[in-house]
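User: Fold this one for me? It's Transglutaminase.
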Amino acid sequence: MARYRITHHTHYRYSQVVSLSQQLLHVQPRALPWQTLEDTRLDIDPAPSHRLQQRDSFGNPSTLLELNLPHQSLSITAEMDITVAARPWPEVEDSMRWEDVVTICRYHSGRAVSSDEHLEAMVFRQESPHVRIKHEFTDWSATCFAPGRPLLAAACALMEKIHDEFTFDSKATEIGTPLLEVLKARRGVCQDFAHLMIACLRSRGLPARYVSGYLLTSPPPGQPRLIGADASHAWVSVWDPSHGWVDFDPTNRIMPGDQHITLAWGRDFSDVSPLRGVIVGGGAHELDVAVTVLPLD
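Assistant: Here's what I get for Transglutaminase.
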């Protein structure tokens, strides 16, 4: 069990006046069986004209904002205290054959899905804005999916393959970099690696979703923990009919534990971006983001 205080600060500066801004925020973690939100605060400057708390179509907590007074900056600070427990993941060899899961997930006329979770999982088999279904992903990941291999063992092998063959490079990609370019360059960030793993799974007909959150990082030996030096993180969740959703972090080659704080999940990054919206005016803008994950125990 671990307790954290997380601060996520976003600051926009505009070169011209913004007359209207409408924003969708995903900055409040989900309440989950292994994760308890103890306290949360959301400070917005300037104060919004309208503010609405809701849940999106995936069940994630979200906040809708409207600012209809002129402004040239927008500052949003989310602070939360949260407790996270380690999850008892199943043995990866103790899962269904991946081909059998593909068969279960295919549409069969006249046959109903077995559960609400099964129905929900079908959403995560399809293409999405940042994840295309391509034979290149199937070909590249073929060594992970030997005939008869248990699904979770195949997913674990895919996680390890991405970690071993790709280099983390924060300057190699942007949010809009196509996954085929990431595959060719063998470089990217956690968002790219999560999208790539999802693409390899979905291209075989397997449900996989994108998970956004935070990860406790450790400073170099002998150096203090720096406030604002952390970042958002992303990993993958794979659906196995026998065990439900099972998480894999290809950036770090681990199955997430109590150092991973789950914020939201969706088809890809576009569903769970911490802040996105539209503005009228504004001209050019500068963006500063600072994240701190501070252990409380």
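One thing worth pointing out: The chain has two domains: 2-85+273-295, 98-256.
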